[in-house]
Protein 1
Amino acid sequence: MASAADSSKPKSSPKYVKFLFGGLAGMGATVFVQPLDLVKNRMQLSGQGSKAREYKTSGHALISILRNEGLTGIYTGLSAGLLRQATYTTTRLGIYTVLFERMTGADGTPPAFLLKALIGMTAGAAGAFVGTPAEVALIRMTADGRLPPDQRRGYSNVFNALARISREEGISTLWRGCIPTMARAVVVNAAQLASYSQSKQALLDSGYFRDDILCHFCASMFSGLVTTAASMPVDIVKTRIQSMRTIDGKPEYKNGLEVLVKVVRNEGFFSLWKGFTPYYARLGPHTVLTFVFLEQMNKFYKRSFLDS
């Protein structure tokens, strides 16, 4: 009976291919949205401490970066963004796919909603842990252009950043901000999964949408709105901790709670959502592009290697 059930299941690509395609899909999407990530990080660091805000709006930040750093300046940190996707997205999508398949019934019944949410949060936390070193490098590289020339770290690429951080500050610094990074991943995956499935169903029930890429895009954009609002306070904690300097042997922040308290006290409660526009504008398209690329690679692999 078991062998008959196994033979009736459609052929699936090997696990290593799932991991590989997950990372490549995320990297492809990052090429398109990296400028928005840069603007978001600059906005979150603007007005840090008691300083006046450097940027009034996201548009002002983008124009300032283009004026002061040139067209290539908006792609600062791209190598770190690509490595983050190669590590974080590869691990997250790979683990999610493997767990999802394992929890799927022999008759093809998918896992229940709560189990899917748990799988998503587990995969997100694991991916965030693996991707934290690249995240630290990305935050520092995108923040460098806002600093005075004598304070810039001047990393030439992500591998130079990782090597120098390890040598100058210790290997453990590569995982600085790991807890808020993992917490953000859990919040993002939980909010994204719940809001995406609900919004997609609502669009289909309206009768104006079919289950196609337009429906997926609209559902992703609504899901991105909910996810952005839920995860930004954790994200600004992550950004501030990973970009902070050690002054006279003491870090600027002791923990994430201190970051939240200082931001609210010195910059105002709504500063926790600083950089909302570029964060939201990045999240929806990045999700859509990642899954579009992933679907196309899976179809190509299936057509080339499984159906032949």
Protein 2
Amino acid sequence: MRGAGEETVAWRYLSRDVVPFAAMFTAECAIVGSNTLFKAATLRGLSFYVFVFYSYLVSTLLLLPLSFIFGRSKRLPPSKSPLFFKILLVGFLGFISQIAGCKGIEYSSPTLSSAISNLTPAFTFTLAVIFRMEQVRLRSSGTQAKIIGAVISISGALVIVLYKGPKVLAAASFISSSPPTISLHQQQMTSFESSWIIGGLLLASQYFLISIMYILQTRIMEAYPEEIRVVFFYNLIATLISAPVCFLAETDLTSWVLKPDMSLAAIIYSGVFVSLFSALTHTWGLHLKGPVYVSLFRPLSIAIAVTMGALFLGASLHLGSVIGSVILCFGFYTVMWGKARENSTKAAAGFENSPFLLTHVVEDEHLLVRYD
């Protein structure tokens, strides 16, 4: 009996903690990879309007059959219900945030995007407190750890952005097929220096909108726990909104003709691994763990972005990026410990206040004594 109980606890820990952690980390890797590919494709002439529309279209077409196969347990919400309008709002906000994010990366770099993403936990936590989805107990060790970890994470991000330091690794670009007159790294740095403020504001607005989406999606999942259908309707609405906007904004018809090159790879990758896989993972995580938990994984993206930028964009790895990434990861794990501490405290409080559980625990202990 003791072995069965330990096995149940281990399985619960695996399904409630290990699997969500691995899924969220994989989703962040996928998002940063998409940002890196997008930046490389824009340097080769890809319009971000074309990228946004085709990415949503790819994910919508892939989710269409999945929504019919795996999403039949509940009926669709009526078109006049508040739930439907929330899904519509999520699709609209998703499109606006995607446009802001792509334009921000076009002005700056994937590394700056990942650095600005450190604002997401703060935005999400503030909104969660406003909408009474998260409680703040300043005397709690878990809350104190989350606050300290957030400050450490933001400090690490600032180190990466503000302190460059000497080169640790001078990487060569692996995406250049012909020797350009100006290297990809030089073009990236020129854009980064001239458009820092514009790119930073656009990226900050993107992650603020994403935080609002996390809150809305959590509310949606509470009333309609169908991850695949919710993500499908989100992508469908974003596709319908982006079609007229992007076609009117990008009037060059030759830009819409795709060839088997870096642009096509960036679009397919984004549609499959970001708009589909990452969106499903985040929606599932919001349903399982809540908005603050999902947003806590954003700080990890900056370390991933620095590595991918050095490998695939020819960006040199500097000492400041290494130091900042170490500080950031330490802050991230501090926040995760605080979140786990709060969950264990809540579980213990609920356990102590449940006479049904206490009765069964006492009975189990007597049984164990008899077997011993």
Protein 3
Amino acid sequence: MLAMLNRILRPALKQAQLSPGVRNTQLSWRHKTQIRACAASSATFQPLEDCLVLNYGGTAMHLNYVWLRDHCRSAASYNSSTNQRNLDTGSIDLTIRPDDATVQNGHLILTWPGGHVSNYSLSWLAENSYEGKKRSNIQPRILWNSHIYEEANIPSAKWDTFMSCDDEVKKFLQNYLLYGIAFVDDVPATVEATEAVTQRVSLIRETTYGRMWCFTSDFSRGDTAYSQQALDRHTDTSYFQEPCGIQVFHCLKHEGTGGRTLLVDGFYAAEKVRQQSPENFELLSHVPIRHEYIENSDNHRNHMTGIGPVLNVYPWNNEMYLIRYNNYDRSVINTMPHDLVQRWYEAHRELTTELRRPENELWVKLTPGKVIFIDNWRVMHGRESFTGLRQLCGCYLTRDDVLSSARCFGLQA
């Protein structure tokens, strides 16, 4: 036992010898915490000058002292009824250090100057530490080409069940989160029914195109979508600072030929670029470019601009969460220096090549009764040219509310 204590105390004593100005109280705290850490079978920890290093579940977490005080979940610091912070972060001493620390029964317990006690579940710390988040995805996804998606044989939701059964909505949302597209079949071919089915999962986002829109190839708006010509793969509203999250389409009528809908998983193509040319992926995810929508007609006047990189990733885990790809609405490239322009075009060309590979194209014929929900931050859509009268209705949905609905069902999003 004495030998064990010597091994525990030796590092702290050595540090005290190297730093003669260290206060006795701080040295005493280090002795106590290290001894208690050894006594805890599930975790060990070591106090450093700027953080506490907690080893738990095979991961070493570096927990800043101000962060620990700020994230105290005691009743005085946090309102568990509203899930809001009570503590004034601006009042925390930026040099704060705990007077005492221990691990007991799966919890890290810290006593702060003044006597306040914070109690943290080790599993909560592991889940919410930077090290934990760096190793996990915010949203699980299955990236696909046409073969992968068709082999998955994902069932569509059915109108009657979808409108009356929450379990059907949950299954639908799970498919949507994983693949970025989901279908509801047997929907009455009306604008009203389309509106009702969308509101089962989210709020409708009203834009310059209205709340629910219904259009044909009449060129009533200054957009090529209002024509009969083919449209290449693209994401919508890239000219919004926050592009619309979900695109909904319902073909109410088509008296003619052609008009199939093209779907491409943008994340699948972008991941190929990341694997093949990491430097090109890096460029596309860091250089902001401008998209623009200008409309000047008798009935509509709009000038919208959105700025952001083609690929957007979370910086802590490099997970993609948004792609802006619309060659129709991309504006003048003037947001990068000369020495990057050629490299950007080469990176963009590699992504375009991946997006245009035939094996990555999923073609779907939308018919009356089939409503498609598309993750506009991930999956691109287009169409082949068509003849005859083709009437579509649809809307945009707010991404935040779709994800909120999914989380309320217990899904990871």
Protein 4
Amino acid sequence: MVKMSLDAVQVASAQLKELKVAPPSNGDSSRESWEERQELNNQDCSNSKPKSVAGRRARKVEGAMFFPRPEHAVTIAVSTRVLFRTEKEEKIFEQQGIEEYLRYQIEHENEPFAPGPAFPFVKALETVNARLRELYPQSEELFDIVLVTYNHAHVGVRFINTINHHNLFIERFCMTGGGSPIGYLKAWQTNLYLSADADKVREALAEGIAAATMFLPEKQTEVSESQLRVAFDGDAVLFSDESERIFKAHGLDKFFEHERDNEDTLLDHGPLKGFLEALGKLQKKFYAKGHRLDCPIRTFLVTARSAASSGIRALKTLRAWGLEIDEALFLAGAPKGPMLEKIRPHIYFDDQMFHIEGAAEMGTIAAHVPYGIAQHHNSRKKPAAGT
């Protein structure tokens, strides 16, 4: 089994957790600064690499840049610990305490962090946004990325410098100074929350927010720079864990019988159904402009279900929901890792650590959705056939 850098990516202390910034004011007093920012965003910066990290604010953009309102955007909240590599700083905090940690961050605030496991995913979101702005210059239906961290606001300067260094377009921050970000996630109308803190991910799921814990594999495969690729498990991710419960309680034969008897009964929704819906909504904007075949968003269902014996119910459920999945792989219990290696998704969601580890072995960035009956079983034993 491949060794994943769990300790390096996951949050070790509530004091240090990830930051979040309050949304900008929409009052009249902010109008001048808003217009100045719009003008700055419209400048043509021919060199995308900054000469210095500190102080650089202008970016190269196509057309006017604006910030979508949460009710229109697909909001992705990403913790600093999965967007960037912060292992060294985390070790300082654990070994020397909060004051030394803050001092170190301030002294090194002009040194950008290296990319973390969520970085390729965020870059792909920005690629999709660029295409959407070309087709719909005035639309607010875009991905909106919010950086979330438990850090003190003093550390924000280094995060801003890092974002500018990597030429990311992230303007919304949430720095909670050790407090829980969940209330802010609800205020942002968050469609997906990615964190290294499994407890906070569970808290978000309990509040009805799609969320997953990200892991960093020892190796990482190259992913597309022109197309966002997102892969989902079925049961307990897109769908409820109803069928998995049948398997756990009564075995594989009863599971197949249950699926045959209920093939015309829709599965209930799982925690990430809403995120797939949001992706589908953006995909349809490309289809409407004649870009179905070269759509920059592609979705995958990668399930251990068998196609003939239990796959029809899953497909009928997706169709009834009005959701199109671009590719569906029914593996009938075969390992998912080799298939994911061929797909090369920017992120893969699964409810079982067995599959997360299998994905990591092949260099796939995977995110654990701690939901459903599988969380009560040994995650490193072979999983159920329905997951």
